[in-house]
Structure formats: structure tokens, C-alpha cells
């Protein structure tokens, strides 16, 4: 089912997996998903469909939940499922990054922002790296996500999670995730907890990072409009399987699978009054 | 802070300050014997009288208070550190480590505390110098007093292990001792402080229990426990009420600690 144009973009990730918890029915059943380099792929599905399980399986973080992962996850030509924990740790945060749903809960409440960013950087820095190197990397990452990064704004780095707005916290998390310029960023419901305006800003940020760094993004969400606005391809996850995958425009305009059609039918329509206002505004602009 | 807690705080601070000033308030020390005046009643020279070998009781109360109030926190520090190692680490690791730690902690808690304390102290050398006896007593208290704190810490660390920010830290490539000490431990601070403060009065009372039984701090060094031992030979409270001074002080300080620790922030 996976649509993958290898002539246009070289492959980055190719997953064919089944995930089950001991004594329970599989959460993911023969799921197949491919992501090309520099591509933004949306993964849509309702709550409990296995979206986060896929994210954690790619990062090798399901082990602690006693999950059994079968199949293969090829990332840059290496099967992640065959790697030892030490090798996986070397990829996490450096080549594969994660941004979670709740920005404020995902930042350590006891640590300052500077400490958290430094920790994320030190996890993969060279032995001969200096504090200046670290500060430069942090400044660059903060600039990328439009957060205060100059010397005059050092107070920002002294703050703790509780002192940030939700939007700032999400940007800090994204800055942490892109510190080492990963090849793939997994955004697991990264905009679900945000208000509409902040959500739009974060989506624009993802799109810019994708353009500027060439970073692939697996954008996991149950929010169809945000997927439509950001992703080049969209995969629909239903009951542990990808039931439809294709160009985002095709998925939204001509859904083939029954579940996808139900999803599209459930999209809220703009009220006629707003359309009228929009038409009026357009007419005024022409005049 | 309500009036009772302010008063309790003032009492603890005052007792600590006075005991720290023992060298100035009782310059002749706790061991000097006034052989011509044994068992003397209170006077200008000896405010609380003297004991049966002529030592100034006021000086002994001051120095004994200093020992009890300084070494109980030291023992609490040892027990809290052990609780972090056993409970905190097991909660962070989870799985079989957590089950093992909880089983071991439950087993430890099921043993009668005082019986265990007396047995272990009796197994250790008793014929040692006073300073060594002080160290042994409070070290034993610290080493045996970790279980309750470990239980609380294991539950807290278990909760943190599954938190979003620890998952995020793992996803950033952090792992091992650094993840525990830099990311988990700072979040256990409120629990650690609470366990530390709660342990102090427990250890003060435990030392007093050991002292009464002659298993605590060795003579001539005083502690609240060894001072209370004097009450064994008390015939009448009415005739010699000054001998109750160490007991009264113990009750006042313990009550003050209880009032201080009743704060919701500490006991939460």
C-alpha cells in the first residue's frame, strides 16, 4: 500500500512491522510505511490506532513496555530492530528525533532550559567539544525555532518549563530535537495541545525546517487540516494497518478506502456565512 | 506559617543555638567531676545540680543535646542516601529491580525496628572509645533506617520513569547514571527533603532508646539517651524534679519537630 517514489527521492526509512503486547492482539499488524529523504509524511488515525506505538517502535523505546516488535525497520539502510540498545542510543537524538504531544510535560520541570538543551547536545557531542561549541549549537537551534538566542536574551535559558508558554515549550522541544540535525523528526501529536494560532506557527516552523535543513518529518496527528497543510504524503492508519497512503491532495480529494472516506466526511465544513464573507472580501479586493 | 509552627521553629532553633554554645555556657565541660558535691541539687554553680559522680548536669544536657541534634541529621543523611540507592534506583530501573527492592524493603519493614536496632548494636563492639560509640550508634541508625524512605522513593521514581520528560530525554539519547542523577533525582528532591526531615526525630528517639538500654553513646560522653538513663534510679519526681530536665527537653524538641513536619509541603 505504501507509495514511494524512489526516483524522485532516495529512501530514508522503510518499516514493515507487527507490534504486540504479551497476551494481547497486535497493535500494529503488518504495518508498511516508507519515508524518503527530505519528505514530510503525515500519519493519520484515531486515538488508539497505534500511531504512538509506531513512533516509539522506530526509536526502539517500546522495550520498556514489554512490547514484541516483529519485522524490520530499515533506516538509512540499517535494520533498527537488529541493533543493540547501545547502537540505538547512538541514533536517538542524533539521527532520529522525537517531539511529543504535551510540551510542558515533555520538559523536565526541575531543570532550566539551558541545562536541558546542554544535556541533549552532550548526549552526542565529540569528546573534544567545548562549552562554547555547545552554546553555539544551542544558539543556532534556538534561532532556527525563532526563540530568543542572543546574549541579551540569556534570561530565557534560565527559565524552567513552568515559566514558558505552551508555544515556547514546544519550540524548545523542537530546538532540542534538531540540535544534531537529525535525518528524521517524528512529531507525535506535536500540535494537538496547542491553540490554533500557535499550531499554525509550529506547522510553519516544521515546514521551514524541512526546507532549510532537508529534514524528513513523520507528522503523526489526528488533526486532518494540519496534515493537509504540512505533509506531502499522507498515510491513514486504521486498526493497526495502513489502509491508504498517497499524495496528500489525492487522499483529501479522492479517498479510496472506506475509512478514509469516513474521515474526510467527518471534516467540519466552513459555515456558509463565512464563505459569503470570504466572497465579499474577494470582490472588494478586485474593485 | 501559623503561630504554633513559628513557636516550634523558634524552639528548635533556640535549642540548637544553645547547644552549639555549650563551650561558652559550660566551659568546664561535660566530663569534669566535682567530687566534693556528687548528687548536688541545683545551685548557682550547677544550675541542674550534679550527677552521682559529681558532673555538672546542665553541661551534660547541653553537650548531649548537641550530639543528639547534630548526629541525628547525619544519620538521616545516611538513611536518605541509602533510600535513594535502593528505592530511587529501583523505581527508575523498574521491572524486576523494582519488585526485588519492594520485596526486600517490605521484609525489612516487617522486622520490629527497636528489636533490630538493639540486636545489631549489641552485635557491634561495645567496649570502644566514646567518640567511636557515637559514630557507631548513629551509623547503625542511618544504615538500618532507610527502608520506609526507600519505599516512598521507589514509588515516586517509578512514576517519573514513565513520565513524558524522561521519555523525551531517552529519545534524545540520554541514558544510564546521567539520566538518573541529572534528570530523575532533581525531581525527587521534595520527597527526599521530606524523608530527611521525618527521619531526624525518629533517630533522636531511637538513640534515646538505645541510650536507656546502655547500647548508645558510651560514658562519659553524654547524649539524650544516656542522660535519660539516669532516670532509672529516680526515687521521687517531687524530691528531684530537676533530673527530669533531659526528658522535658526531649519532649519539647520532639513536639516541636512534629509541629514543624505537619506542614503539608513536607509531608506531601
Q: Helical region count of chain B?
A: 13
Order of helices and strands of chain B: HHHHHHHHHHHHH
How would a textbook summarize the main sheet of chain A? Answer: 6 strands, mixed
- Averaging pLDDT over every residue of chain B, what do you get? 91
Q: What is the domain tally of chain B?
A: 1
CATH architectural grouping of chain A: 3-Layer(aba) Sandwich
Kindly report how far apart the N and C termini of chain B lie: 16 Å
Q: CA-to-CA gap between the ends of chain A?
A: 49 Å
CATH topology of chain A: Rossmann fold
Determine the fraction of residues in helical runs of chain A and give it as a percent range.
40-55%
Reported CATH architecture of chain B: Orthogonal Bundle
Give me the strand/helix succession of chain A. EEEHEEHEHHHHHEHEHEEHHH
Quaternary status: heterodimer
CATH class of chain A: Alpha Beta
CATH topology category name of chain B = MetI-like fold
| Count of individual beta strands of chain B | 0
Give the class-level CATH name of chain B.
Mainly Alpha
Helix content of chain B: 55-70%
Shape of chain B: elongated
Features:
heterodimer; A: 287 residues; alpha/beta; Rossmann fold; six-stranded mixed beta sheet; four-stranded antiparallel beta sheet; 12 helices; 40% helix; globular; B: 268 residues; mainly alpha; MetI-like fold; 68% helix; elongated
Q: What does this protein structure show overall?
A:
- The complex is a heterodimer of chains A (287) and B (268).
- Chain A is α/β, with parallel strands linked by helices and 287 residues long.
- Chain A has a single domain (11-286), classed as P-loop containing nucleotide triphosphate hydrolases (Rossmann fold, 3-Layer(aba) Sandwich).
- In chain A, 40% of the residues lie in helices and 22% in strands.
- Chain A is built from twelve helices and ten strands.
- In chain A, the strands form two sheets. In chain A, strands 6-7-8-3-9-10 form a six-stranded mixed sheet, with helices on both faces. A four-stranded antiparallel sheet of chain A has the order 2-1-4-5, covered by helices on one side.
- In chain A, a hairpin with a 2-residue loop joins strand 9 and strand 10.
- In chain A, helix 4 (113-122) packs across helix 5 and helix 5 crosses helix 7 (166-178).
- Chain A is globular.
- By secondary structure, chain B is mostly helical.
- Chain B has a single domain (3-267), classed as MetI-like fold (Orthogonal Bundle), CATH 1.10.3720.
- Chain B is built from 13 helices and no strands.
- In chain B, helix 6 packs across helix 10.
- The longest helix of chain B has 37 residues, at 57-93.
- Chain B is elongated, with a radius of gyration of 22 Å.
- Chain B starts with a helix and ends with a helix.
Amino acid at each position: 500500500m505504501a507509495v514511494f517514489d524512489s526516483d524522485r527521492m532516495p529512501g530514508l526509512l522503510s518499516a514493515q512491522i507487527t507490534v504486540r503486547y504479551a497476551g494481547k492482539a497486535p497493535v500494529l499488524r503488518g504495518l508498511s510505511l516508507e519515508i524518503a529523504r527530505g519528505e514530510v509524511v503525515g500519519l493519520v488515525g484515531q486515538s488508539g490506532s497505534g500511531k504512538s506505538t509506531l513512533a516509539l517502535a522506530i526509536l526502539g523505546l517500546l522495550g520498556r513496555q514489554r512490547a514484541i516488535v516483529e519485522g524490520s525497520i530499515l533506516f538509512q539502510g540499517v535494520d533498527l530492530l537488529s541493533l543493540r540498545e547501545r547502537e540505538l542510543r547512538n541514533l536517538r537524538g542524533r539521527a532520529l528525533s522525537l517531539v511529543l504531544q504535551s510540551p510542558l510535560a515533555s520538559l523536565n520541570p526541575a531543570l532550566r532550559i539551558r541545562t536541558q538543551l546542554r544535556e541533549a547536545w552532550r548526549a552526542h557531542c565529540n569528546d573534544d567539544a567545548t562549552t562554547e561549541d555547545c552554546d553555539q549549537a544551542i544558539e543556532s537551534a534556538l534561532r532556527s525555532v525563532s526563540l530568543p538566542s542572543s546574549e541579551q536574551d540569556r534570561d530565557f535559558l534560565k527559565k524552567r518549563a513552568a515559566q514558558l508558554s505552551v508555544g515556547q515549550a514546544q519550540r524548545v522541544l523542537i530546538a532540542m530535537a534538531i540540535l544534531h540535525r537529525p535525518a528524521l523528526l517524528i512529531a507525535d501529536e506535536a500540535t494537538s495541545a496547542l491553540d490554533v494560532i500557535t499550531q499554525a506557527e509550529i506547522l510553519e516552523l516544521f515546514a521551514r525546517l524541512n526546507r532549510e535543513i532537508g529534514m524528513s518529518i513523520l507528522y503523526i496527528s489526528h488533526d486532518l487540516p494540519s496534515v493537509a497543510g504540512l505533509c506531502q504524503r499522507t498515510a491513514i492508519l486504521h486498526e493497526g494497518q495502513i489502509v491508504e497512503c498517497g499524495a496528500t491532495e489525492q487522499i483529501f480529494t479522492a479517498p479510496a478506502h472506506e475509512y478514509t472516506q469516513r474521515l474526510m466526511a467527518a471534516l467540519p465544513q466552513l459555515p456558509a456565512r463565512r464563505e459569503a464573507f470570504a466572497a465579499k472580501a474577494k470582490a472588494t479586493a478586485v474593485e | 506559617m501559623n503561630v504554633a509552627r513559628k513557636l516550634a521553629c523558634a524552639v528548635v532553633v533556640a535549642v540548637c543555638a544553645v547547644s552549639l554554645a555549650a563551650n561558652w555556657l559550660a566551659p568546664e565541660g561535660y566530663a569534669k567531676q566535682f567530687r566534693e558535691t556528687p548528687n548536688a541539687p541545683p545551685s548557682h554553680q550547677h544550675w541542674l545540680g550534679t550527677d552521682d559522680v559529681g558532673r555538672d548536669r546542665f553541661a551534660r544536657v547541653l553537650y548531649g543535646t548537641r550530639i543528639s541534634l547534630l548526629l541525628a541529621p547525619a544519620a538521616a543523611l545516611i538513611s536518605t542516601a541509602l533510600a535513594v540507592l535502593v528505592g530511587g534506583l529501583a523505581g527508575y530501573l523498574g521491572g524486576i529491580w523494582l519488585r526485588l527492592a519492594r520485596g526486600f524493603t517490605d521484609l525489612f519493614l516487617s522486622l520490629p525496628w527497636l528489636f533490630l536496632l538493639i540486636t545489631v548494636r549489641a552485635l557491634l563492639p561495645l567496649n570502644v572509645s566514646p567518640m567511636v560509640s557515637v559514630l557507631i550508634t548513629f551509623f547503625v541508625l542511618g544504615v538500618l533506617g532507610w527502608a520506609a524512605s526507600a519505599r516512598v522513593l521507589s514509588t515516586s521514581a517509578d512514576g517519573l520513569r514513565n513520565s513524558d520528560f524522561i521519555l523525551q530525554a531517552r529519545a534524545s539519547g540520554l541514558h544510564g547514571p546521567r539520566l538518573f542523577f541529572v534528570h530523575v533525582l532533581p525531581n525527587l528532591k521534595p520527597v527526599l527533603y521530606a524523608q530527611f526531615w521525618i527521619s531526624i526525630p525518629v533517630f533522636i528517639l531511637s538513640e534515646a532508646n538505645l541510650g536507656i538500654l546502655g547500647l548508645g553513646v558510651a560514658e562519659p560522653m553524654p547524649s539524650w539517651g544516656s542522660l535519660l538513663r539516669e532516670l532509672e534510679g529516680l526515687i521521687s519526681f517531687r524530691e528531684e524534679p530537676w533530673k527530669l530536665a533531659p526528658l522535658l527537653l526531649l519532649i519539647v524538641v520532639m513536639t516541636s519537630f512534629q509541629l514543624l513536619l505537619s506542614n503539608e509541603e513536607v509531608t506531601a
